[in-house]
Amino acid sequence: MKLPNYEEAKSRTKVDIVYKDVNIKYEEVFKNKKYFLRTYGCQMNVHDSEEISNYLIMLGMSKTEVLKDADVILLNTCAIRENAHDKVIGFLGRCKHVKKLNKDLIIIIMGCMAAQEDVVKEFQDKHKYIDIIIGPNNIYDLPKLLLERQKGQNIEVHSNSDIVPENVKYHRDSKISAWVNVMYGCDKFCTYCIVPYTRGRERSRKKEAILKECKCLIENGYQEITLLGQNVNAYGNDLYSDYNFASLLEDIAKLGIPRLRFVTSHPWNFTDKMIDVIAKYDNIMPYIHLPIQSGSNNILRKMNRRYTKEEYLNLVDKIRKKIPKAAITTDIIVGFPGETKEDFKETIDVVNCCKFDGAYTFIFSKRKGTPAALLKDDTPLEEKEKRLATLNELVNRYSKENNKRLLGKMVPVLIMGVSEKDNTKMYGYTDTFKLVNVAFDKAFIGKIIAVKIIDAKSFSLDGKLT
Fold it and tell me: What are the pLDDT digits (tens) for 431-452?
């Protein structure tokens, strides 16, 4: 495998996708063995970890939260930012110590870091105790690789990005809300992003397989489905048909799931038909995560985002006119190479205009192999941190103001479980994906109930059962 190469990857063609049925038979090969699984990064990784858990359980293993008790340690990694890389490297030190105490321990690196050749080389050179390295597109090979490792082989696996696994079973962490992959990969090639290299080109699942999976979830009592994709609304672009994400969204809504969501959308693919479908169906939640990344056309062009500030604002305006209740959140990067004070001011202007319900904000993180890594970056870190603090203060203010509009109102909340911070409370989410904490009552877990909002903060709401 070569280092990620922008020009080679961008010139990749739409070769035929291989749809692979995944059929793992239950074998107690690892009976009484335990696995420890740590997940870093996005919702896609969280869902991938559900797939990983299922394969291990099918081999007879059980999960442990105690590192030293594990027979297999798996780290499902993220490559989006340097911070995620550093966390994995730091945790590997603990894994190395455990392996010194248990020579039979198997350590596995999975996820996007395992699809970067320079990172793989780092693992091979500096962390020789790692047994298996497997990219995000080959998760279904995990049982086979574990069995091979039992024979004493050290294995390095690179991702095959032409595969779309079907009939995959998941050990879902929740029995209330479920993730469903509808596509894999990304072809947008934002200049700062490593995902097109680590996850491969865009590959859409067959609609029949997606609908079958959703029907099964509904039959099993799930209250909510979230459709997943690196660029979810690009679904269908590779299928050479008129069937697109709006079509899929409508077909799933018709199945009768109480709540339907999707992440993450790219503004360039957000069509008028999508807006119409969301507005038409009450069970498609009025929550849209719409990353803008910057409010400056100069920076958007350098990022290769494919839209202007004006086009983004026009899209937000159309969404709010058709879906007045919609909560819109976003992603914003500060300190992108060449960002001037005027560029940053334009980002602030967009936030003031859109009044987002929330935002994931980051300082630019250079990723080796991407075009942005080669750009001159002469803004001091201190200035970037100052801009981030200014941005966060503004975002949090609007988030709290938007939340305050719900004070005294009765809102539908899907109760997910007991609060991790306070076991006398349970938590859930409104249709607009706002976190709500209410007094504990086990009878309501897994149900959508009416809650009166009695307090509003920037990141959560307090509610009262009536």
Answer: 999 999 999 999 999 999 999 9
- Enumerate the domain spans of the chain: 22-163, 168-404, 410-465
| Contacts for 279 with CB less than 8 Å, ≥ 6 apart | 322, 323
For the chain, the distance separating the N- and C-terminal CA atoms, rounded to the nearest angstrom, is 59
The C-alpha R_g of the chain, in whole angstroms, comes to: 23
CATH of 168-404 given 2.40.170.10, 3.30.230.30, 3.30.470.20, 3.80.30.20: 3.80.30.20
- The token pair at 72 is 């297999």
Asked if residue 466 has pLDDT above 90, the reply is no
Angstrom distance (rounded) from CA 57 to CA 171: 8
SS3 of residue 444 by DSSP: helix
Q: What are phi and psi of 36, to 5 degrees?
A: -115, 125
Contact between 419 and 439 under an 8 Å Cβ cutoff? The reply is no
E-strand ranges in 265-409 read 287-289, 327-334, 358-363
Could you report the per-residue pLDDT of 253-282, keeping only the tens digit for each? 999 999 999 999 999 999 999 999 999 999
CATH 3.40.50.300 fits 22-163, yes or no: no
* Residue indicated by tokens 């095959």: 160
* Rounded-to-integer distance, Cα 78 and Cα 76, Å: 7
CA distance 466 to 460: 19
CATH architecture of 410-465: Beta Barrel (2.40)
> Do 146 and 199 meet the contact criterion of CB atoms below 8 Å apart?
no
What are φ and ψ of residue 169, in 5° steps?
-100, 145
Report in angstroms the alpha-carbon separations of 202 from 10, 125, 184, 304, 391: 12, 32, 6, 17, 32
Go through 296-315 and write b for each residue having 16 or more CB atoms within 10 A of its CB, e for each that does not: bbbbbebbebebebeebbeb
**DSSP alpha helices (H): ranges in 376-421?**
381-404
Element (H, E) at 203: strand 203-204
**Residues 399 and 392 sit within 8 Å (Cβ to Cβ):** no
